[in-house]
Design brief:
This protein is of the alpha+beta class. The chain has two domains: about 70 residues, no CATH class; about 70 residues, conserved putative lor/sdh protein from methanococcus maripaludis s2 fold, CATH 2.40.420.20. The chain has four helices and ten strands; from the N terminus they run H-H-E-E-H-E-E-E-E-E-E-E-E-H. It is globular, with a radius of gyration of 15 Å.
């Protein structure tokens, strides 16, 4: 139920009419573009500044604690198969899903055994919506 509401909210928030776009995914007027990263199964999501603002996308830097990387627990996503992911932001308005392995949760932090390196920006607010963009797309009726 929660995923359905998120996808509906995403579609309304990023609808081409809400952002003034034409509805063609990947065009300059589209609120989001999704392209596969060559040689991988991953996608690169690029949002317009207005779309990122509407989704209130926020990031925080991963940090190092000893030999482990620590990210905010808010940055952890679970897929339907129970695997864990996070969205990284290699540059402003660009997002890439990254698989992670969580060792443990400590309060508001996720201690990882595998994931992004310290200093990498991870999405703490708006990750569910990015997931919807990546897998649901944006279509005009």
């Amino acid at each position: 139920m929660r995923r359905s509401l998120i996808v509906i909210t995403l579609l309304v928030a990023l609808s081409p009419t809400a952002c003034g776009g034409s509805g063609d995914e990947g065009t300059p007027d589209s609120p989001a573009a999704v392209e596969q990263i060559s040689g991988t199964e991953l996608n690169r999501i690029t949002l317009t500044a207005e779309a990122a603002q509407r989704l209130d996308v926020q990031t925080a830097a991963a940090r190092s604690e000893g030999k482990r990387t620590v990210i905010p627990y808010a940055a952890v996503l679970y897929d339907p198969d129970g695997r864990t992911w996070t969205y990284t932001s290699p540059k402003q308005l660009v997002f890439v899903r990254k698989d992670i392995s969580v060792d443990r949760i400590d309060g508001d932090s996720a201690i990882l055994t595998a994931g992004p390196s310290a200093g990498t920006k991870v999405v703490t607010v708006g990750a569910d919506e990015l997931w919807g963009v990546e897998y649901g797309g944006i279509e005009e009726d």
